[in-house]
């Protein structure tokens, strides 16, 4: 039915006795619902971005409060780029996040294939165990891993942090991969085999390219969870420099706090730019 026919039918219905009021009420309810969703969306955006906007503004001001607003200065960024310990901690956190997210991806993709495409005894248990790190409170996971590492003789530091974050990031890889494979059209793989491709070629040229947005989404989340983590690093990081631990120490001891707002601003801008590029390249947000 075309739009014109629908409009004509609605007009005839409105013209009938007893239906005008119903149609009018439906229009009012629909209008309120539409404007209400817009208002809710704007409210959520403001709630999320107003604190971030405040941090960005304060990174360019002379004082640490928004009102009264101080003079504009770049001295805070000078303090940041001359703070060697903070920059070292940021590089270390980025490196740990990259390594742990890569390990989680290398383990999570085959595990996702196993859960999605194979039937075996204990499959439901395995699926439940995969999401346990996602549901477990950080302090419980941190203490548990600290005890485990001490039992096996591993000293707290870089390796233990990577292992902890790899386990923590595993659900962020497995769940999107399983979800994508659940709706995957297996006929594409069958067609490739009929054309002479072997199993490795089908995986490389057909399956992985199709599920790559899901893998990318999981990697991004695993990386971010590792980079911003504090509780687990606090327990298993030992003396390793980490950005969250360094910023926590700056707050506790009130030393070098003028560099915190510029650091937070750079992190927000870099992450926003990375997500924008990822969205334009492949829509990974569909799988988040």
Question: Can you offer a commentary on this structure?
Answer:
- By secondary structure, the chain is mainly alpha-helical.
- Helices cover 77% and strands 0% of the residues.
- It has helices spanning 3-15, 20-58, 75-81, 84-117, 123-135, 138-152, 158-182, 187-194, 199-227, 231-236, 243-253, 260-281.
- The longest helix is centred in the N-terminal third of the chain and has 39 residues, at 20-58.
Mean of the pLDDT scores?
Answer: 83
Q: Based on helices, strands and strand pairing, what is the structural class? A: mainly alpha
Q: What is the H-and-E element order? A: HHHHHHHHHHHH
Shape assignment: globular
**Uncertain regions: pLDDT < 50 for 5+ in a row?**
none
End-to-end distance, in Å?
36 Å
Radius of gyration: 26 Å
* DSSP helical segment count: 12
Q: What is the beta-strand fraction?
A: under 5%
Helices, strands, pairings?
Layout lengths: L2 H13 L4 H39 L16 H7 L2 H34 L5 H13 L2 H15 L5 H25 L4 H8 L4 H29 L3 H6 L6 H11 L6 H22 L7
Helix pairs in contact: 2-12, 4-7, 4-9, 4-11, 5-7, 7-9, 8-9
Name its key features.
single chain; 288 residues; mainly alpha; 12 helices; 77% helix; 0% strand
């Amino acid at each position: 039915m075309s739009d014109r026919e629908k409009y004509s039918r609605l007009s005839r219905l409105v013209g009938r006795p007893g239906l005008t009021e119903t149609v009018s009420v439906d229009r009012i309810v629909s209008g309120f619902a539409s404007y209400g969703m817009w208002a809710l969306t704007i409210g959520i955006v403001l709630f999320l971005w107003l604190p971030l906007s405040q941090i960005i503004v304060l990174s360019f001001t002379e004082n640490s409060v928004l009102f009264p607003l101080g003079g504009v200065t770049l001295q805070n960024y000078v303090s940041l780029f001359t703070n060697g310990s903070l920059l070292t901690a940021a590089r270390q956190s980025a490196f740990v996040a990259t390594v742990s997210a890569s390990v989680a991806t290398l383990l999570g993709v085959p595990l996702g294939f196993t859960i999605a495409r194979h039937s075996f005894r204990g499959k439901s248990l395995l699926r439940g165990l995969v999401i346990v790190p996602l549901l477990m409170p950080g302090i419980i996971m941190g203490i548990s891993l600290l005890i485990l590492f001490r039992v096996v003789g591993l000293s707290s530091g870089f390796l233990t942090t990577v292992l902890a974050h790899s386990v923590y990031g595993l659900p962020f890889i497995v769940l999107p991969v399983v979800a994508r494979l659940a709706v995957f059209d297996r006929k594409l793989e069958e067609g490739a085999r009929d054309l002479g491709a072997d199993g490795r070629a089908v995986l490389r040229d057909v399956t992985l390219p199709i599920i790559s947005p899901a893998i990318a989404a999981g990697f991004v989340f695993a990386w971010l969870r590792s980079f911003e983590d504090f509780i687990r690093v606090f327990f298993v990081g030992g003396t390793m420099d980490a950005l969250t631990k360094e910023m926590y120490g700056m707050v506790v001891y009130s030393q070098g706090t003028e560099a915190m707002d510029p650091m937070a601003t750079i992190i927000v801008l870099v992450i926003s730019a990375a997500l924008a590029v990822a969205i334009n390249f492949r829509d990974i947000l569909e799988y988040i």
